[in-house]
Structure formats: structure tokens, C-alpha cells
Specification:
alpha/beta; seven-stranded mixed beta sheet; 47% helix; acyltransferase; 1-acylglycerol-3-phosphate O-acyltransferase activity
Length: 243
């Protein structure tokens, strides 16, 4: 019986990469056009949302999005969430309709095909490089001026399996304060169980996400960064414990 579980998990992982790759191959010419101008990013974002939903449904995930507050069209936000799975990207794209740009690890740009579009549409950061981290602020500032939002997983990586929620880095909160944009915390309840970074694990089932009430940055200064960080983390941590 255990052998069949391992066979299932092995095939399930392969199926995930098939679902990731197939729409990119089919839509490759359209995707190329959509990234040829920065002003066309909202169109690319719509395609990315369709890609994300295709993967979640194809993996047998029954996603449910609860929203305590809705982002307004045309406004910029800082979207943050706990990070436990490769499917976090897909669930974030599914949960949020406002076009946003991911700030993500530079290593993901090495993934064949996916990496080609990832490095041309996301803000890449090498966390071991101070220069790279500083460049993130400049690129994010440019995107915010274009009316887009930013999405960061503030744990700075995927924590070990036994850690419910790691400490948050300050970057997302400094950026939000500097640009006076609200923090929008999201909690992903089931992604670790459904499809964690442990190879032999996971399976179809429910995948819940909750968009919490926004946290305003109006009137805050850079000295309030730590307080904003802790308040945002507390919202997500309390929800994780409640699920």
C-alpha cells in the first residue's frame, strides 16, 4: 500500500510540472507579445491568473477565497502572505484581481520556460547581495508609479516544515510606508498540506485563502517599520492557529 502512495506522489509531482508547462507552450506567442511592453503588463497578468487557475483545478485543489475587504480597482497595495508551497504563487494570482508584480527569488529564473517569463515580469532579488536588495526598491518604485501593486512573501523563503510562520523581513513594510500604500495580509491555510516542498507528500483537496482587512500606512514613518511588520505577522499567525 505504501508503495502505491509513493508512486502516486511521484506521478503527482510530474503532473504539476506538466500543468505548469503546457499553457506556457500553447500560449507562448501571446505571452511573448504581452511582455513586449511594460504598459501591457495588465494583459499578461490576466493570462497569468488563467494559468494559475488551470494548475489549481488540474491538481484537484478546491480553492476557496474568503475576503474581509476587497482591493479597489486602480489602487496600489502591498500583498503579503505566508510561504509554504510552490502553489502559493498560483493561489495568490487566483485570490487577487488587481494586477501586481511578484518580488521573488532570483534562483527561480533558472527553471526552464517558466523562468523565461518569470525574470521578465517579476522583480528578482538575490538575498545574499546588498546591491540586489537595494535594486528591488528602485524597480518596485517604478512599478508602483505605473499603478501596479507589489506582492512579497515576507518570510524571505520557505521555512522548515515544523515552523508555522517564520519571522518577517522588513523590506515589504519599508516599501509600503515609503509609498503610503496599504498592507493586504493573506493567509494560506492548506498549501503546505496539499503540495509542500517535501517531494513525497501532498494530494488533492481543499485549499483555503483569506484576505484580511487592510492595514493602513498613512501617517507612518520608517521608524514604524518594525511595529507594522509585527502587526501584519500577527494577523496571519492568528489566522493560521484558528484554521
Amino acid at each position: 500500500m505504501k508503495v502505491f502512495k509513493y508512486i502516486f506522489w511521484f506521478l503527482y509531482r510530474i503532473w504539476f510540472y506538466v500543468l505548469v508547462t503546457l499553457p506556457i507552450l500553447v500560449l507562448f506567442p501571446v505571452l511573448l507579445i504581452s511582455i513586449s511592453k511594460e504598459s501591457w503588463y495588465p494583459f499578461f497578468f490576466k493570462l497569468a491568473r488563467g494559468w494559475a487557475k488551470f494548475i489549481l483545478i488540474g491538481m484537484g485543489f478546491r480553492y476557496k477565497i474568503e475576503r474581509e475587504q476587497l482591493p479597489e480597482k486602480g489602487k496600489s497595495y502591498m500583498f503579503i502572505a505566508n510561504h509554504t508551497s510552490m502553489t502559493d504563487i498560483m493561489l495568490m494570482l487566483t485570490a487577487v484581481k488587481n494586477p501586481f508584480v511578484f518580488v521573488g527569488k532570483a534562483e527561480l529564473a533558472k527553471i526552464p520556460l517558466f523562468g523565461f517569463f518569470y525574470k521578465r515580469t517579476c522583480i528578482l532579488v538575490d538575498r545574499s547581495s546588498v546591491k540586489s536588495r537595494q535594486a528591488v526598491f528602485l524597480r518596485a518604485q517604478k512599478r508602483l508609479k505605473q499603478g501596479l501593486s507589489i506582492c512579497i512573501f515576507p518570510e524571505g523563503g520557505v521555512p522548515e516544515e515544523h515552523i508555522l510562520l517564520d519571522e518577517f523581513k522588513d523590506g515589504a513594510f519599508r516599501l509600503a510606508i515609503n509609498h503610503k500604500i496599504p498592507i493586504v495580509p493573506l493567509t494560506f491555510a492548506d498549501n503546505k498540506k496539499r503540495f509542500s516542498y517535501t517531494f513525497f507528500s501532498g494530494g488533492p483537496g481543499k485549499m483555503r485563502a483569506k484576505i484580511h482587512k487592510f492595514i493602513s500606512t498613512e501617517g507612518l514613518t520608517i521608524n514604524d517599520t518594525r511595529r507594522l511588520n509585527e502587526a501584519s505577522r500577527s494577523v496571519i499567525l492568528d489566522q493560521l492557529k484558528a484554521f
